[in-house]
Each structure stands twice: as structure tokens, then as C-alpha cells.
């Protein structure tokens, strides 16, 4: 599994011959790419409907969008997306060589100046190369979405979904900050941890090396990887 971070919460994930783009938003300082520079993904996976997570969906209108039913219907109507898969919390859908499992995130999900659209529950997603379950032996990547610290990380996601790598927001203000994100890393107990959702705008100024130090103190068995400039990581 190949993981590439394009800044903010935007990840390009390759599982076998299948590619998935999570939360496309390229107007951020941690990428030098434009949407046109990205290989067309097979799937676009959306965690929720805030603009900094769906802004560039329309640039990948030929991909199949995977999201909650409310959000899938919204981007189909507003962005001209041709194919969608509506799914919900706790579900798993097979996307060619990949599986996408949805879990809730502690956040909001309205959109528009007056929040005239309510787009269902915000989510995190687990992308894996095997069906999650008691006999699942595959490799998996947990994208936490925009979330606060929540006990399901410790009580459900870690023991039952068993992610090998996790991407955690740590920019504070709208999500967890460094301290709470380091607790999340401890609870999730994954070998590989990636910071995301930081330094995109003034309220999100945060030092990823300080996050790495906090995780090292609290979750010594997890290694933090600070990616930048569209950096990639191969998850075996």
C-alpha cells in the first residue's frame, strides 16, 4: 500500500491496482501539485462536507465518490460527479482491490454560509487490502478525518480494526491539537503515525516535530512520519 500526503487532509492511497483520493483540497502550502497533476483516481473518498475537504471533488468527476448518502447526493448535484457509493457508519464497501470501512468522527458537517445543508455524520475511514473482520490479515490505513479525541479509538478502532498506520489531525482549533492527538496515537497503537490538518491557515499553526516528540513520550511503539512536499510512504 502506497500512501502519499498532499497536505491538509488530502491523501492518495494505492492498493494493488486501485487508487483512492481522500478529501481532495490542493489549495494548501504542503503540496506543489494542482489537481491536474494528480493521476486520475478510481475512487474519491470524502470524510465530510466542509470546503477544505471537498473543494476539488469536481476536478475528479470521472472517479466514483464514496461518502455518506447525504454527502454523496450533495456532490453529485453540486459538482457533477457521475458515480457515487453512499455508505454509512460501521459499513464496509469493496472498491476493486481495496476495502473502505467508515467510522464516525467527532466534528460538524454543515455547509454553506448559513449551513443550509446538513450532510450527515462526519466520518473517518479505514482503507485496507482485506475485508476487516476476525480473520482479516491485511494491511490498513486509518484516516481519522476531522475529529476530536474519542474513546472509540481505544475501544473499537484499535482492537477490532487494527490499523497499521493512522493519519491524525493535530492543528488544534477545529480538531485535536498536539496533546490530544498524541493520546489518540497511544490509544490507536498503530506502528506508523502521520500528522495532518496543520499549517494550512493561521488558526492551524502547529509544529509536527513537537507532535512527534509528544507521541514518542506517550506511545513509544509508534513511529511518527512527517511527510511534506507530496511525500510518500510504503506501508507493507
Q: Could you give a short description of this structure?
A:
The protein has 236 residues and is an alpha/beta fold.
Descriptive report:
The protein is an alpha/beta fold and 236 residues long. It has a single domain, classed as Metallo-beta-lactamase, Chain A. It contains five helices and 16 strands. A seven-stranded mixed beta sheet has the order 6-5-4-3-2-1-16, covered by helices on one side. It is globular and about 45 Å long. The model has no long low-confidence stretch (mean pLDDT 95).
The CATH homologous superfamily corresponds to Ribonuclease Z/Hydroxyacylglutathione hydrolase-like
Q: CATH architecture, please? A: 4-Layer Sandwich
Strand order of the largest sheet: 6-5-4-3-2-1-16
pLDDT below 50 for ≥5 consecutive residues: which ranges? none
The dominant shape is globular
Any idea what the radius of gyration is?
16 Å
Query: How much strand?
Result: 25-35%
Helical content (DSSP H or I, runs of 4+): 10-25%
- Please tally the β strands and state the result: 16
In whole angstroms, how far apart are the ends? 6 Å
Give helix and strand order, one letter per element, not per position.
Answer: EEEEHEHEEEEEEEHEHEHEE
- What is the CATH class? Alpha Beta
**CATH fold-level assignment:** Metallo-beta-lactamase, Chain A
If you average the pLDDT, what whole number results? Answer: 95
Structural class: alpha/beta
Amino acid at each position: 500500500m502506497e500512501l502519499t500526503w498532499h497536505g491538509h487532509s488530502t491523501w492518495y492511497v494505492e492498493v494493488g491496482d486501485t487508487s483512492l483520493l481522500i478529501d481532495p483540497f490542493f489549495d494548501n502550502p504542503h503540496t506543489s501539485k494542482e489537481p491536474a497533476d494528480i493521476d486520475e483516481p478510481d475512487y474519491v473518498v470524502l470524510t465530510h462536507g466542509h470546503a477544505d475537504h471537498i473543494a476539488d471533488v469536481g476536478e475528479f468527476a470521472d472517479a466514483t465518490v464514496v461518502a455518506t448518502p447525504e454527502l454523496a447526493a450533495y456532490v453529485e448535484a453540486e459538482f457533477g460527479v457521475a458515480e457515487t457509493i453512499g455508505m454509512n457508519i460501521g459499513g464496509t464497501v469493496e472498491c476493486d482491490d481495496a476495502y473502505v470501512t467508515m467510522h464516525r468522527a467527532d466534528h460538524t458537517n454543515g455547509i454553506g454560509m448559513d449551513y443550509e445543508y446538513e450532510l450527515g455524520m462526519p466520518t473517518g475511514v479505514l482503507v485496507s487490502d482485506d475485508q476487516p473482520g476476525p480473520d482479516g490479515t491485511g494491511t490498513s490505513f486509518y484516516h481519522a478525518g476531522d475529529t476530536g479525541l474519542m474513546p472509540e479509538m481505544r475501544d473499537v478502532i484499535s482492537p477490532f480494526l487494527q490499523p497499521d498506520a493512522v493519519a491524525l489531525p493535530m492543528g488544534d482549533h477545529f480538531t485535536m491539537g498536539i496533546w490530544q492527538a498524541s493520546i489518540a496515537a497511544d490509544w490507536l497503537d498503530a506502528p506508523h503515525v502521520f500528522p495532518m490538518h496543520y499549517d494550512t491557515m493561521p488558526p492551524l499553526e502547529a509544529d509536527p516535530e513537537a507532535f512527534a516528540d509528544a507521541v514518542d513520550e506517550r506511545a513509544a511503539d509508534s513511529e511518527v512520519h512527517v511527510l511534506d512536499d507530496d511525500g510518500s510512504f510504503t506501508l507493507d
